Amino acid sequence: MADLYVPIDHARGGIAGQIAVALRDAVRHGRLEPGRRLPASRDLAADLGVSRGVVVEAYEQLVAEGFLVSRVGSGTHVAPAAARTPAPSPATTAPTGADRTFYGHRATSPDLGHFPRERWLASLRHAVTAIPSDAFDYGDPGGVPELREELAGYLRRVRAADVDPANLVIVGGVAQGLSLVLHVLTQRAGGLPLAVEDPASHRQVPLLRRAGARLLPVPVDDEGVDVAALRDRPARAALVTPAHQYPTGVVLSPGRRAALVEWAQDTGATVLEDDYDAEFRFDRDPVGCLQGLAPGHVVLSGSVSKALAPGLRLGWVAAPAELAEAVRRARGELDLGSPVVEQYALAHFLRTGGYDKHLRQMRREYRRRRDALVGALAEHLPQVRVRGIEAGLHAYLDLPAGWDEGRTAEAARDLGLVAEPVGPMRFTPGGPAVVVGFARLPAHRAEESVIGLKVRMSGQNID
Ligand SMILES: Cc1ncc(COP(=O)(O)O)c(C=O)c1O
């Protein structure tokens, strides 16, 4: 196992970043040769006097960049080709906010340590052994029929959606579903004025613009998106997160749901429903999806990214028949469809109850983690207002006026929390706020993390 020289300036903050820079440098300059095993994250954390979470974050970053490889049971090693790849100068490859926009952990990500490997493997094995040889050919770009059948049943049962297998298109996640739907809508109209929630996921903005949409921000308040303000915009479609607004966590109120559907009916506009984390509801009765209220006007997009893992890149779009067919055709023309074996595996996983079972287990665990985080915040940082925790995998924290949200998020990340400032998600400036993911924060570590945050932020007039 490698003994490592990792200089850290604790006063400077950004500890995970400092560790990543030191390790990357050691690999590039051959001080850590290909195949060399790195210390376990717990050991390196103890050596450096930092929390294990920051070492894990640094390792994950370098795995994502290809410098390290990590295998269950055999630890983390320097990637075989890492040193042979001539590296661009550090100045151009230091991890920046922009680098991290599209990969790595998000506040909405699940705990991947709980991925049901054995049960997923059983479904994969079933798929590979049971499907006929012809099924390995190019599949229907709309998705394999068995999966569409299972998903339609699941969405009707769990999300009160009004879907038929024929109206479903299997895609590589909500992101690809939105891209395809917008591609079709913008091509038809020669552009698309698209209402978006303010604030919204800043990661979606490049996707929406690339698909040709012109964004029209609409404010979000305690009831969700402000439909009266939406009526003042010349929008032909609206992208919303009714089950759990991202990032505020607000659930769209019954009155606003009705008003939004009425707007779509009056204007002939399309509502794009991003149902990204709807499986996780904790305190309130399940809220059905908007699509179930108005299947002729709403396009529902969902995925297994929060329920299972984002890396599977499996999702769905449920759309009115004619639009579903156009999306299916576009998918075929653009790239011939999603991988087939994984679709059969997901169909098997759904059919045999693996999906429901995993969700039940995770819901219980995430509720414990959320309660621990919220309890610790109430006790140690009562100045912080916690919102949006009835559902999903992140909490929205309104910070006291004097706090800098960027520094708060960085301090939280140093403590092993997944945190992001809300500023980049806003179209209109607002008060300081951060989102914090609790899915990967074990309940027993919540208090220590929050106390650490209190100490780090003590210079910012928190008392
Ligand atoms: C609000 C929101 N919508 C959509 C997505 C993307 O989901 P998918 O992995 O299904 O493309 C995310 C991922 O973090 C998200 O936060």
UniProtKB/TrEMBL annotation:
GO terms assigned for molecular function: DNA binding; DNA-binding transcription factor activity; pyridoxal phosphate binding; transaminase activity
Gene3D superfamilies registered for this protein in UniProt? Type I PLP-dependent aspartate aminotransferase-like (Major domain), Winged helix-like DNA-binding domain superfamily/Winged helix DNA-binding domain
Tree of life domain: Bacteria
User: Which UniProt key words apply to this protein?
Assistant: Aminotransferase, DNA-binding, Pyridoxal phosphate, Transcription, Transcription regulation, Transferase
**Residue ranges occupied by any HTH gntR-type domain in the UniProt entry:** 13-81
Q: Does the keyword Transferase apply?
A: yes
State where composition is biased (Low complexity).
79-98
Check the UniProt entry and state the signal peptide residues, or none.
none
One Pfam family in the UniProt entry: Aminotran_1_2
What are the boundaries of the region Disordered?
Answer: 79-110
The answer to keyword Ion transport applying to this record is no
Family statement drawn from the similarity comment of this UniProt entry = In the C-terminal section; belongs to the class-I pyridoxal-phosphate-dependent aminotransferase family.
- What is the name listed in the Swiss-Prot or TrEMBL entry for this protein? GntR family transcriptional regulator/MocR family aminotransferase
